[in-house]
Amino acid sequence: MSLEIIQNILIILLAGYLVIDNLGITIINTWAVTTGLCAGLIMGDLKTGLLIGGTFQLMSLGVAGLGGASVPDYSLATLVGTFLAVRTGSGLSTAIAVGLPVGLLAINLDVLVKILNNFVAHKMQTLLHQHKFRKMRLVGLAGPAMFAFKNMLVMFIIVVLGPNAVKAVLKVVPTWVTTGLNVAGGMLPVLGIALLMHYMPVKKYIWAVMAGYVLSAYLKLPIIGVSILGAAAAIVVFRNGIKDSEQKKQQAQAIASSNVNNGSVEEEDDTYDE
């Protein structure tokens, strides 16, 4: 068995595991960046996998499938992008141009699987009322199986068509389409960060935002360096917050004990007067 066939099998199996890990018992936290790590290890190009995974991870910031909502599958997009980028030797732009539409397409498939899972849930409920617990648990496995099959089917099509077929499709696609997807791919990380900052106490820590901007934009400090400085600042702020809370607690205890003492003194004075 050749190396490419082994890679194809592993990448398809990883595609099925992604959704089970995200929706079930999380083992390796298959976000886009960790998916890129795993895909890079399988394809033998760790740098490309991390680069593509990190890019799609930025796009997913502030996006969450809460309350059963369907969101773009950036992990699947990372998997497709990494596979094609390594096999075709293309760059990040091609990975985004192909991977992002696949991630968006997965929304429709996700909705379809959730609709089908309604029938699974009703069947399990019927078996529950009939006290057929073993059969109920077996039927319940259909839910994760359909979610896994959804991703594996998409990845299987990508693998079967092969990089050459994808290259042919990209040649047919007009330049303005791929350019628009690249522009959108560049905007989505900014949108993700903006959505994330909307729910963060930015007004309280605006100094940290300004410091990070200066370090990155003007001093050209790498993102890892900025992150380390940010972590150091967070530790300082956290420790100062603990000290402030302890001081406030001590002050409150001192005031409470003072009030108690004053009350007891007044009672003694009243007794003495009597």
Topology, pairings included?
Layout lengths: L2 H21 L8 H12 L2 H14 L14 H15 L3 H38 L3 H8 L1 H31 L2 H24 L7 H13 L4 H51 L1
Helix pairs in contact: 1-2, 1-7, 2-3, 2-4, 3-4, 3-5, 3-8, 4-5, 4-7, 5-6, 5-7, 5-8, 9-10
Features:
mainly alpha, 83% helix, 274 residues, flat
Explain what you see:
This protein has 274 residues and is mainly α. Helices cover 83% and strands 0% of the residues. The protein has ten helices and no strands. Helix 5 packs antiparallel against helix 6. It is flat, with a radius of gyration of 28 Å. The termini are far apart. The model has no long low-confidence stretch (mean pLDDT 79).
**Major beta sheet, specifics?**
none
Summing up helix and strand content along with how strands pair, one would put the structural category as mainly alpha
Q: What is the CA-CA span between the terminal residues?
A: 103 Å
Low-confidence stretches: none
Proportion in helices: over 70%
- Could you spell the SSE succession in H and E letters? HHHHHHHHHH
Structure, briefly:
The protein has 274 residues and is an all-alpha fold.
